[in-house]
């Protein structure tokens, strides 16, 4: 039977999910963590609750994939490698070139490499992984599924920064956004729940996880999104600052005695957001626990909710209306208080949450009251399934 593997490679990790297609059944999934470090962790979950785990040094992605393919056979998850007829690779930066998921041949792979400028930690690892697949599974179709593709439909009004236009013309300096696969998946599902052709819908999708972004989806197309040139912009995130006034950077560098802007950007990426405000943790569950005693943890939660609400409000203005608001990803799917606090600030705009329905985690649910003008949905995201579907569509 044909299998498709959805692969999500980070700089030191490799997450994957193996599907039997076209039935869309997950037959195994796993993660390799700490690649290139001591004591890498290699895990596979399969069958009915079986788990395989190994802790040993895994020096690079090639070794990790070798091990993975070997274990899939040893654990009888597949009989032979040729069963894996498709591999979908999540790629962070697709620039303006990759507008849709694309079969990766040598020319496309070179472009993925060239786009490393936009995602220096991710694109090189993703290109490496594709090369390893080409080598170890020469008959398998490799497809790139880009985080940015869904947002290539944004109009210039929304993707341009108010900078000298020449910087866009000469250097492609613009907003690209991210999380596109997730926004595409949940917006398509929301249109189904609305029972309307997606072309006739206005949907705001809130992907609220450790990384977080909000997208205005008008007629099935992303027309604006909160992340920017990189995933640092927009909402308050686990460790990322989201939007700030750039003039604060030289001011703080001076105060902190920093001379390299990269150190400052590193603080914005890794030491800010929920972690930076609370001083406790980047993880929303920890903040919820700490907030009873620690006012800064409570403040971090309030700031997070405020930014989500502001972006929703501004995207209602961008689209001149909204039919549905979708919550997804770790915080969006699990944090009922956050959803209530956000929506309760938007009642004037026609939103109304049903408290009894909102008391739910991770299950597709209509959260709004019967008579609310705007539907509010919880829709669990499934980027891996979207990746597998894109591969399947290109196999034909
Ligand atoms: P993700 O990046 O999508 O895996 O989401 C991770 C975020 O979801 C972290 O901030 C978690 O604390 C948060 N999260 C997971 N479960 C819950 C929960 N039950 N309540 C609140 N936040 C949660």
TrEMBL record:
Domain of life of the native organism: Bacteria
CC cofactor note: Mg(2+). Can also accept Mn(2+).
Molecular function GO labels: acetate kinase activity; ATP binding; magnesium ion binding
Residues annotated for substrate binding in this entry: 90
EC code(s) of this entry: 2.7.2.1
Catalysed transformations (reactions): acetate + ATP = acetyl phosphate + ADP
Predominant localisation class: cytoplasm
Cofactor: Mg(2+); Mn(2+)
Pathway membership: Metabolic intermediate biosynthesis; acetyl-CoA biosynthesis; acetyl-CoA from acetate: step 1/2
One GO biological process term: acetate metabolic process
Role: Catalyzes the formation of acetyl phosphate from acetate and ATP. Can also catalyze the reverse reaction.
Official protein name in the record: Acetate kinase
């Amino acid at each position: 039977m044909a299998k498709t593997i959805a692969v999500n490679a980070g700089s030191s990790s490799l997450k994957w999910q193996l599907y039997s297609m076209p039935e869309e059944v997950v037959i195994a999934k796993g993660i390799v963590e700490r690649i290139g470090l001591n004591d890498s962790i290699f895990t596979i979950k399969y069958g009915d609750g079986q788990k395989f785990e190994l802790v040993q040094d895994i020096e690079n992605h090639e070794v990790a994939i070798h091990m993975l393919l070997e274990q899939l056979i040893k654990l009888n998850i597949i009989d032979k490698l040729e069963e894996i007829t498709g591999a979908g690779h999540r790629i962070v930066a697709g620039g303006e070139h990759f507008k849709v998921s694309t079969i990766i041949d040598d020319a496309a792979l070179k472009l993925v490499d060239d786009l490393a400028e936009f995602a220096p930690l991710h694109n090189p690892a993703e290109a490496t992984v594709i090369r390893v697949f080409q080598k170890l599974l020469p008959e398998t179709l490799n497809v790139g599924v880009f985080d940015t593709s869904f947002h290539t439909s944004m109009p210039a009004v929304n993707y341009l920064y108010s900078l000298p236009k020449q910087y866009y013309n000469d250097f492609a300096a613009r907003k690209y956004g991210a999380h596109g696969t997730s926004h595409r998946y949940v917006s398509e599902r929301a249109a189904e729940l609305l029972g309307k052709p997606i072309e006739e819908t206005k949907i705001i999708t809130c992907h609220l996880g450790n990384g977080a972004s909000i997208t205005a989806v008008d007629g099935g197309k992303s027309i604006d999104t909160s992340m920017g040139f990189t995933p640092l912009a927009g909402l308050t995130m686990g460790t990322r600052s989201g939007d700030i006034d750039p003039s604060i950077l030289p001011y703080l560098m001076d105060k902190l005695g920093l001379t390299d802007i990269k150190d400052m950007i590193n603080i914005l990426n890794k030491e800010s957001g929920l972690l930076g405000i609370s001083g406790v943790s980047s993880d929303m569950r920890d903040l919820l626990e700490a907030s009873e005693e620690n006012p800064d943890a409570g403040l971090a939660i309030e700031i997070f909710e405020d930014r989500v609400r502001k972006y929703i409000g501004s995207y209602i203005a961008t689209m001149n209306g909204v039919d549905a608001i979708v919550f997804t990803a770790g915080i969006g799917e699990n944090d009922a208080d956050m959803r209530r606090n956000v929506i309760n600030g938007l009642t004037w705009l026609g939103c109304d949450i049903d408290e009894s329905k909102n008391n739910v985690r991770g299950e597709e649910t209509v959260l709004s009251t019967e008579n609310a003008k705007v539907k509010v949905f919880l829709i669990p995201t499934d980027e891996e399934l979207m990746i597998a579907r894109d591969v399947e569509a290109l196999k034909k």
